[in-house]
Amino acid sequence: ADSLSDIAVLKVKAENLPTVQLGDSNSLEVGQWVVAIGAPFGLDLTATQGIVSALSRSLPDGTYVPFIQTDVAVNPGNSGGPLFDLSGRVVGVNSQIYSRSGGYMGISFAIPVNVAKTVIEQLKSNGKVDRGWLGVAIQDMSQDLARSFNLNQPDGALVSSVQPDSPAADAGVLAGDVIVAFGDGKVRSSSDLPLLVGNTPVGAQVPLKLLRAGAEKTLNVTIAKLGDDKEVASPVAKAQSESGMLGLGVATLSSDELKTRKLDNGVVVEQVLADGPAEQAGLTVGDVIVSVNNQPVKSAADLKTAVQAAPSGKPIAMLIMQGEQSRFIAVNKP
Question: What is the radius of gyration, based on Cα positions, of the chain?
Answer without folding.
Answer: 23
